[in-house]
């Protein structure tokens, strides 16, 4: 998903020329919006955002693919498979909707509400918006089981079942994205007419309200479940640390700490980036349907643009959460900030053995 940009209004002369041209065209021809005509040939910021997102996700995907190849049959493989799918989904979410948004930038944006491009772009933004939230929720639930019920996790969770869950997540997101094609909800061009999303402003119907409630409810619900699961995981690890002298499973905690740390980072990033759009969408559609929008239309347009910009940054930050919160990177940061080359006596001393090796030892101990 590509961050949209706010364009300035066009000159009156250009607007007059375009209005004269539309009288000679077919009634079904797309109508260019006057808000977009001045800066459409310079989508630099949007292009840079798209490029940054693609590069970030490719780097993280390479790292995850190498790690998964070494750990295909170990306890961390499930987490790596979830993370790889999350990064791959974020990458596709930059390339597919991003290319369409850049096309709208260069053509000046359209106001034709029945345009197939708008339907595809709106469906893509819903699909690639829900998928990362669902995947983050699934990762948090999987790690919560792995930390709190390791024996049950070893028996129940496997690569084959994880792949089934991933397919179900994608199908659920796809089903929600396709609902407007069955007349439940509407996709429409959004101000400043260079992106498409669920209809939340203007003459909204009850189906629009229900669709927004479903989309926002699933998104906020996924964030809430991830928050609960990650909180339980963190509390469990803290309690285990306090009791570490009474148990002999220190080696099983290293990779758990690393994965939970990454999950907390992903959850915080998702909450910051996605909550505004989910909440602003609900507020906008409720006020529009109730007819109480009044003179606040411009304000809510601005809020929706801000929300989608923040949401687009989630797909840029997700891969860097994984890249920067790895054990090796944190250890190097610790050395640089403390000036110590010896990790003896520090928290990272317990991570001296690779978390990959710890995963293998943990699996052997459980068997």
Q: What kind of sheet is the major sheet? A: 2 strands, antiparallel
- Give, in order, the helices and strands: HHHHHHEEHHHHH
**What value does the Rg take, in angstroms?**
24 Å
Structural class: mainly alpha
Number of strands: 2
**Helix proportion range:** 55-70%
Main sheet strand line-up: 1-2
Per DSSP, the total helix count is 11
Q: Judging from the principal axes of the Cα atoms, what is the shape?
A: globular
User: Mean pLDDT across all residues, rounded?
Assistant: 76
Work out the strand percent. under 5%
Contiguous uncertain segments of 5+ residues = 2-32, 34-41, 347-367
End-to-end gap: 43 Å
Give structural notes.
This protein has 367 residues and is an all-alpha fold. It has helices at residues 12-23, 44-70, 77-107, 116-148, 150-156, 159-178, 206-242, 254-290, 297-324, 327-338, 355-366; strands spanning 187-190, 195-198. The protein has a two-stranded antiparallel sheet with strand order 1-2. Helix 3 (77-107) runs antiparallel to helix 4, helix 3 crosses helix 9 and helix 7 (206-242) runs antiparallel to helix 8. The longest helix has 37 residues, at 206-242. 42% of the residues are buried. The model is unreliable at 2-32, 34-41 and 347-367 (pLDDT under 50).
């Amino acid at each position: 998903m590509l961050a949209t940009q706010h364009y300035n209004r066009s000159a009156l002369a250009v607007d007059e020329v375009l209005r004269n041209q539309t009288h000679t065209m077919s009634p079904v021809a797309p109508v260019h919006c006057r808000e977009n005509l001045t800066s459409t040939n310079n989508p630099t910021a949007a292009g840079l955002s798209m490029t940054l997102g693609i590069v970030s996700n490719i780097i993280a995907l390479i790292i995850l693919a190498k790690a998964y190849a070494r750990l295909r049959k170990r306890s961390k493989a499930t987490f790596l498979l979830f993370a790889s799918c999350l990064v791959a989904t974020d990458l596709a979410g930059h390339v597919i909707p991003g290319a369409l948004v850049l096309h709208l930038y260069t053509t000046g944006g359209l106001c034709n509400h029945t345009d197939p491009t708008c339907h595809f772009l709106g469906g893509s933004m819903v699909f690639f918006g829900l998928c990362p939230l669902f995947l983050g929720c699934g990762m948090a639930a999987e790690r919560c089981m792995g930390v709190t019920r390791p024996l049950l996790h070893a028996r129940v969770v496997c690569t084959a079942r994880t792949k089934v869950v991933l397919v179900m997540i994608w199908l659920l997101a796809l089903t929600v994205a396709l609902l407007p094609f069955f007349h439940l909800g509407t996709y429409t061009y959004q101000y400043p007419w260079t992106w498409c999303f669920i209809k939340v402003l203007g003459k909204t119907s009850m189906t629009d309200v229900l669709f927004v409630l479903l989309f926002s409810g699933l998104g906020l619900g996924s964030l809430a479940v991830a928050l609960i699961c990650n909180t339980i995981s963190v509390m469990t690890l803290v309690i285990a640390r306090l009791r570490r002298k009474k148990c002999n499973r220190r080696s099983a905690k290293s990779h758990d700490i690393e994965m939970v740390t990454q999950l907390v980072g992903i959850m915080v990033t998702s909450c910051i980036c996605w909550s505004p759009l989910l909440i602003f969408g609900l507020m906008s559609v409720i006020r529009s349907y109730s007819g109480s929008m009044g003179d606040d239309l411009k304000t809510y347009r601005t809020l929706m643009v801000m929300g989608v910009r923040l949401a687009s940054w989630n797909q840029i930050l997700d891969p860097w959460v994984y890249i920067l919160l790895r054990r090796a990177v944190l250890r190097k940061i610790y050395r640089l900030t403390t000036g110590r080359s010896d990790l003896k006596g520090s928290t990272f001393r317990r991570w001296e053995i690779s978390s990959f090796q710890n995963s293998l030892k943990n699996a052997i101990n459980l068997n």
